[in-house]
Write a structure and sequence with these properties.
Strand order of the largest sheet of chain B: 5-4-3-9
Largest interface: A-B, 17 and 36 residues
Number of strands of chain B: 9
Largest sheet of chain A: none
Structural class of chain B: mainly beta
Shape of chain B: globular
Structural class of chain A: mainly beta
Oligomer: heterodimer
Radius of gyration of chain B: 15 Å
């Protein structure tokens, strides 16, 4: 028997950097 | 200064990642297409190609400074990260400045991140 345990689930976008270029004119 | 090097558990081998499609995958099993499709269906986010143009010592001890050119506009962006921080490189997968440290801390197999590598990053979609 495998006891159920809570597993964290992370959103995909937490894995990649948010690289926002500075606003172009 | 950049935030101190805590251990983001989402990079730990075996961590469960939810794609924007609802599909669940382990972090080590992710592929380029998973990020591309997730951005397509998520709305408001877009995937940018961020090319590593330089890797330097950071002014902050224990960090490295990565210089990217980002997206179609080739904007220059620099970030300080711990050397074990993994980035997802197109066609290659997880890569970091110190694959040995990434393996030690996260058990996540990594390539060495090098100048010229094209990483996946996200930005806000331009809503016209």
């Amino acid at each position: 028997n495998v006891e159920p345990r809570s597993v964290a689930v992370f959103p995909w976008h937490s894995l990649v950097p948010f690289l926002a270029p500075s606003q172009p004119d | 200064p950049p935030s101190s090097s805590h251990l983001p558990s989402h990079f730990m081998k075996g961590a469960i990642i939810q794609l924007a499609t609802g599909e669940l995958k382990r972090v080590e099993d992710l592929q380029t297409q998973d990020f591309v499709r997730s951005a397509e269906v998520s709305g408001g986010l877009k995937i940018d190609s961020s090319t590593v143009v330089d890797i330097q010592e950071s002014q902050w001890p224990g960090f490295v400074m990565l210089h990217f050119v980002v997206g179609e506009q080739q904007s220059k962006v620099s970030i300080d990260v711990p050397p074990e921080h993994p980035f997802f490189v197109y066609g290659q997968g997880w890569s970091s400045c110190s694959p040995a440290r990434t393996a030690q801390l996260f058990s996540l197999p990594c390539h060495r991140l090098q100048v010229g590598d094209v990483c996946i990053s996200i930005s806000l979609q331009n809503m016209n």
